[in-house]
Amino acid sequence: MIAEIEKFIEIQNNIDEIIKNSPFKLSYIIEKSGIKKPTFFKKLKEKDLPRKSCW
Description:
The chain is an all-alpha fold. Helices cover 64% and strands 0% of the residues.
């Protein structure tokens, strides 16, 4: 259980790099997240993307 929490924290702290290195285009990720583009970038900058898996 602790390993999963640590992995989640690591992903949350590095989400911008993970998205940047993703094989998917950013427009696809934004579309599938259901968040408007300006809001997505604001949340990405603040590292406050939704915790619910919507992809």
